[in-house]
């Protein structure tokens, strides 16, 4: 174990905040972690990071799940010469038994630095710091314990979902089952890089969007309902009796002015056709208001952080889809495959699907995947007054006039 003093890191242990240095020192009985701290001290001394992009490393049969990490000072810091990350596919909703966690940690003490940052933004359990020669044995131990690796690189990334029906009354869909189902169905895409770039699927049970799918997922699946918000008027009266400001805190904050409260009768009403299902009123009065009964999900596309283009929020493409367990989510899976096909054919290297839509236009995307344009897709009113047609639509409207049809056909073929 390293006996070096680390005066600069000592500074980071002072102050009222929780210190990551203190936390890392708890694992410093492991020589890799001890040297990681030494390397960090050195980085602060030199005022530069000492990591470099290395080669591709992995385990047999997999084209993802391991992120190669190397220091640029391998002679001085041999223990962190290789300090690879392993991504372990988390269970739906991150529900582990304490036993499963202990197993995971034991495997990591055996094969790695003992450090993890459970869980990364990817969703996976992230095991930080091992060497190339430990990768396969570590993977074997993980497999035997029932764990699989997650996605990385140009793979489908490990799908993730919110706590869902297991712990939340707002769940409009069984996020846990759907996440598990998609992970299994698309195993091949998870383990083998076959896309222009990463593809993330994140599933929230309602518009509270606890996994922030709208900001982070190429495909966001967000639970919603299409009938009416359920109202318990007696419970509304109880809120009123407690002096709760229903008008100010609930009604006045409704984004579509779809709910009303009558202070005299103490009755709360919702204009359901105009309600945008934002969850605000339900969050504010959970004892009185509940999601509707006819539930499904809104499907959105294109959320991502910056790299090629700026950060995008995802964009509605299907306002309401019933997600049926009985038919194994066939409609959704079918749509996902059509999206992948178009992206695969048209995307440039490292171009996310949202960026491709930005480059080619939403109407190209909709036509290619066979989705009808609907008002819910409108982000803001258009500034351009021109209306666009597809040439083949002009042909169909001219049908009956053979000459015009032939002329239009000739036009299309140009
Ligand atoms: C060199 C001469 C001209 C130039 C460079 C020019 C340029 C333009 C441009 C750039 C626009 C905006 C197009 C858009 O928003 O997409 C426009 C619109 C328009 N121009 Fe011109 N223009 C010229 C001459 C004329 C003349 C002589 C007239 C009428 C006698 C005219 C009538 C209009 C009208 C009515 C619009 C609005 C069209 C619409 O909103 O649909 N322009 N012009
Ligand atoms: C009684 C006579 C007229 C009436 C009632 C009338 C009415 C209108 C109306 C309702 C619009 C649509 C405005 C909008 O969509 O915002 C319009 C647009 C237009 N009118 Fe007229 N108009 C008259 C005469 C004329 C004349 C004499 C001209 C040209 C010499 C003209 C040129 C235009 C043009 C170019 C536009 C399109 C403007 C744009 O695209 O922004 N109008 N008119
Ligand atoms: S997204 Fe909705 S259903 Fe899921 S945990 Fe959050 S509030 Fe509950
Ligand atoms: S869910 Fe949102 S839009 Fe609908 S009534 Fe409640 S506050 Fe208004």
TrEMBL record:
The gene is dsrA. GO terms for biological process: sulfate assimilation. It comes from Thermanaerosceptrum fracticalcis. Pfam families: NIR_SIR (PF01077), NIR_SIR_ferr (PF03460). One of its GO terms (molecular function) is sulfite reductase (ferredoxin) activity. It comes from the Bacteria. Residues 82-144 form the Nitrite/Sulfite reductase ferredoxin-like domain. Keywords: 4Fe-4S, Iron, Iron-sulfur, Metal-binding, Oxidoreductase. Residues 152-370 form the Nitrite/sulphite reductase 4Fe-4S domain. Gene3D superfamilies: 3.30.70.20, 3.30.70.2500, 6.10.140.1420, Sulfite Reductase Hemoprotein, domain 1. This is Dissimilatory-type sulfite reductase subunit alpha. Its EC number is 1.8.99.5. One of its GO terms (cellular component) is sulfite reductase complex (NADPH). NCBIfam families: dsrA.
């Amino acid at each position: 174990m390293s006996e070096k003093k680390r005066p600069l890191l000592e500074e980071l242990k002072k102050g009222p905040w929780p210190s990551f240095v203190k936390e890392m020192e708890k694992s410093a009985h492991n020589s890799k972690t001890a040297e990681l701290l030494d390397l960090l001290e050195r980085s602060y001394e030199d005022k530069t990071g000492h990591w470099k992009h290395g080669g591709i490393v992995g385990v047999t049969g997999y084209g993802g799940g391991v992120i190669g990490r190397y220091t640029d000072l391998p002679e001085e810091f041999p223990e962190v010469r290789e300090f690879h990350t392993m991504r372990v596919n988390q269970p739906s909703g991150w529900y582990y038994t304490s036993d499963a966690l202990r197993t995971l940690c034991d495997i990591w003490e055996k094969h790695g630095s003992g450090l993890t940052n459970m869980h990364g933004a990817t969703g996976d359990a992230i095991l930080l710091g091992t060497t190339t020669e430990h990768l396969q044995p570590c993977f074997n131990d993980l497999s035997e314990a029932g764990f699989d690796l997650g996605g990385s690189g140009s793979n489908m990334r490990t799908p993730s979902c919110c706590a869902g029906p297991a712990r939340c009354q707002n769940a409009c869909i069984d996020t846990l089952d759907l996440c598990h189902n998609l992970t299994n169905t698309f195993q091949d895409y998870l383990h083998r890089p076959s896309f222009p770039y990463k593809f993330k699927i994140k599933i929230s049970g309602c518009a509270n969007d606890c996994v922030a799918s709208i900001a982070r997922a190429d495909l966001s699946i967000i639970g919603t309902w299409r009938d009416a918000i359920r109202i318990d008027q007696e419970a509304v009266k109880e809120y009123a009796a407690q002096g709760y400001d229903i008008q100010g805190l609930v009604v006045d904050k409704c984004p579509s002015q779809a709910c009303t409260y009558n202070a005299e009768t103490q009755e709360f009403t919702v204009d359901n056709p105009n309600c945008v299902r934002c969850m605000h009123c339900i969050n504010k009065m959970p004892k009185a208001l509940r999601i509707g009964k006819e539930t499904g999900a809104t499907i959105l596309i294109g959320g991502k952080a910056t790299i090629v283009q700026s950060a995008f929020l995802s964009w509605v493409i299907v306002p309401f889809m019933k997600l049926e367990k009985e038919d194994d989510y066939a409609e959704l899976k079918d749509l996902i495959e059509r999206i992948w096909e178009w992206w695969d054919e048209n995307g440039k290297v490292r171009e996310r699907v949202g960026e491709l839509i930005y480059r080619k236009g939403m109407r190209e995307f909709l036509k290619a995947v066979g989705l009808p344009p609907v008002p819910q897709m409108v982000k803001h009113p258009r500034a351009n007054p021109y209306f666009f047609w597809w040439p083949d639509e002009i042909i169909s409207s001219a049908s009956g006039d053979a000459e015009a049809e032939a002329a239009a056909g000739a036009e299309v073929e140009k």
